[in-house]
Request: fold
Amino acid sequence: MAVDSPTAPAPVEPPPFRPGLEGVPATQSAICDIDGLQGLLTYRGYTVDDLVAHSSFLETAYLLIWGELPTAAELQAFEQEVQMHRRVSFRIRDMMKCFPSAGHPMDALQASAATLGLFYSHRALDNPEYIVGAVVRLLAKISTMVAAFQLIRKGQDPIQPRDDLPYAANFLYMLTEREPHPLAARIFDACLILHAEHSLNASTFSARVTASTLTDPYAVVASAVGTLAGPLHGGANEDVLAMLAEIGSADRVEPWLDQAIAQKQKIMGFGHREYKVKDPRAVILQKLAEQLFDQFGHDPLYDLARKLEDVAAERLGPKGIYPNVDFYSGLVYRKLGIPEDLFTPIFAIARTAGWLAHWKEQLGANRIYRPSQIYTGAANRDWIPLQAR
Ligand code: ACO
Reply:
């Protein structure tokens, strides 16, 4: 029953419903900017091209989270802190040994990230030291946990991080048990930079919504990992290689694409809510892929991918559908010898930097997220007793 109140505010006309919140600003943010018509992406005002050329993943993470580039001393201290927290408790490793080995590594990562909250349950969101500690722990341990599950599911014990190796090289070492070639480590680090942040995408929105309840940062990252896992978001990078394998050869690209378009199938690694041109990250990743092929040998799937990009430009370009970040990342990771179902967990390792930047920003001007809805269900129904249904 509606309650009449002489003091109730007059009803206001709700804004129009926008499925997927397209074009609806849900926050203010100073972290990342996208120009989807020009294909420009900046973190804190620096282009990703400059960051890939001059920065490292940890320096970029620092920039994203604290807003400014670190001094040499600040960067060294930050790198040392992250290095000191790389190890994960044997109890988390033992817990991972109980996970089904056929389970998806994203599910393993989501569970492990949430478990960190049990170990570091003290929550002091207004204490800067707590914030720094949580940032460092999450950046350090997420990558160790991804590598650990990879070895555990093969029946091996995880190997300890190597303190003499930088972040990206250490991750590849923990994954493959071999010190990576310097070019492989540098290109992998560039991939982490490119995936570190991308404004209010689905997983970051999820992170901010979770953060807005003032829960702990481990729950924030765990909820974002779960959101990133879906095939319309981070999960698309796995599907791209499967799609290229299904096409099989360059001469099959045109008929395959025509049929896919006729069947209204989404072409994986294409299209983006924000970009109406080729995703600038795809442009850089394509160049990185070529560097890898020059050094370590060609991948015939790359020729197929380029043909698909050309044909798709004719068919889908007029609708503003071009390759996104996921289109070439899989080819890079494949050349680095990384299993396909680790592509999205690697995305999560990188995006943890962006999620943490948004967590910190959200805490700085928090208001709990509580959007409205347009109710479309039944009303005024008479109760039906169980026996009468
Ligand atoms: N292949 C074919 N058609 C497409 C594609 C695609 N990949 N993407 C969009 N379209 C078409 C749609 O069919 C639709 O056409 P219509 O208007 O004739 O019906 C139109 O473009 C708009 O598509 P939406 O799905 O409404 O666009 P939205 O902005 O909601 O979706 C998304 C963006 C999810 C990325 C979409 O392009 C997609 O599903 N792409 C494939 C999956 C993918 O690569 N995801 C990774 C995105 S990047 C990231 O999250 C890290």
